[in-house]
Amino acid sequence: MGLDILFVHPNASNKIYQGLSKISAIEPPMWAAMLANHCRLVPKNNFGVQILDCEAELLSWEDSAKTIDDINPRVACFVVYGQQPSASSQNMTGAIGTAKELKKLNPNIKTLFVGGHISALPLEVLKEDSVDMVCQNEGVYTISNLLKTDLSPERLKLVRGLGYKIDGKGVLNLPEGIVPRSRLEFDLPGMAWDLLPDIKKYRTAGWHSWSNNTEAAPFASIYTSLGCPYKCSFCMINIINRVDVSPYISSQDSNVFRYWRPEFMIEQFDQIARMGVKNVKIADELFVLNPNHFQRICDLIIERGYDFNIWAYSRIDTCKPKYLDVLKKAGVNWLGLGIENPNQTLRQEIHKDGYKEVKIGDLMTDMRNAGISIGGNYIFGLPMDTHESMRETLDFAIANKTEMVNFYCAMAYPGSPLYLQARENGWELPNDYVGYSQHAYETLNLSNDNLTAVEILKFRDEAFVEYNSDIDYLNLLESKFGKPARDNMENTLKIKLKRKLLGD
After folding, report:
1. Is 252 inside any structural domain?
2. 131 dihedral zone (left: phi>0; alpha: psi -120 to 50; beta)
3. What is the pLDDT of residues 314-361, one digit of tens each?
4. Following CA atoms 223, 227, 230, 232 in sequence, which dihedral angle do they give, to the nearest 10 degrees?
5. CA–CA separation, 434 vs 15, rounded Å?
6. Sign (positive/negative) of CA torsion 146, 151, 153, 155?
7. Are 208 and 311 in contact (CB under 8 A)?
8. Does residue 54 sit in the same domain as residue 144?
9. Cis status, amide bond into 218, omega within 30 of 0
10. Please, what's the b/e burial string for 352-370 (b: 16 or more CB within 10 A of its CB; e: otherwise)?
């Protein structure tokens, strides 16, 4: 039997990260691996499935297309996700680039696109000549139902959640539902690790492995939950939960949170442990949210005696001091905190005002005392930001040093409420996919009433250098993780990003 579907994880690392691509993480494509298992393991599916991870294999667009052509699947499904809000839009760069090359070689292979950006803008994606079909949400049921057809136009009309073309014009079928929580372990039964490249081809971001001086590879990432119950206006992550075709829907309208049973999840941790993995990213938007969920998973990991080095995410207001001990014992050495801005008034503008600023420093102290390192995330250029308030945010970050920091510019990611607001107000948006990357040459962040996009981006780039070159910060790294960590950061600072917006 020929191959029914090839799940393609595209590669555009050099375009997205510039010189930082040499040290950025290479993460297993979780959604591709979950969709693959759905298509081959769920009863009545049993389709022929492969995965092509172009990023892990370091394939160019041309080589990726040739490989797809050689495999010759019925459907080449480009899975365009990622592990941060911008990732799906920026990864469209590699997906479209590869699909264009594929159509040159073999226009008969049907291309299907699924992911956050696609769910946000399905009709716009269908305008691409290289795109034959799209999924309107996470695509689980749409993809398997599509594979049950002969791909004829008459049959495509019957597949809920599918978008396709009639006489060159995009049309959307009635929506399909997402996988309900009660069906997660049956319809999304883990990741198809055996279809991915050698696990040693996946590596952590450098700082993740500082905590125990391990090698950056092998590296595994895993979901224990999907979605987020919150409604931050800058985030589009929940757009894949949409169950309608309205162009005026954002992630705020589909903030669904689902999680697998801890007993099911420990089987997934068992699997990656048998693969020799130590460095693990729990990619949940918020792992530290439901104590009945995350504490039980931690307890089961502790019972197994695993020596994982885990990175996970939390909110300021969900990470209580009483949880820190069990997290640390389970191997959670790093927690990412979405601080965004220390000023509550500015956070209110982005619907992230559920915590008071007086709690932030206290929690950081508690986390350090528990032996957990912090990845602090901040955003410059929020709607009410000024030069003064951005400086206050940077000063707060420097005064409350975290072991790692991410500085972002405010962006209107497709699928976010901020994107709808930007379109309504006529704000300038990127005219290509790579413009949504925070680190690309073509980066185009938002302006606001007080600051131009140029001013904000310039401040962000200079803030990154100021924070990471601070002698007290470098001394912190060396005292906590050893001189290699300090050397790593100093070498990172030598990699200069070029910016079109700044005249480079």
Report:
1. no
2. beta
3. 988 888 999 999 999 999 999 999 888 776 665 555 555 555 555 788
4. 100
5. 7
6. negative
7. yes
8. yes
9. yes
10. beebebeebeebbebbbeb
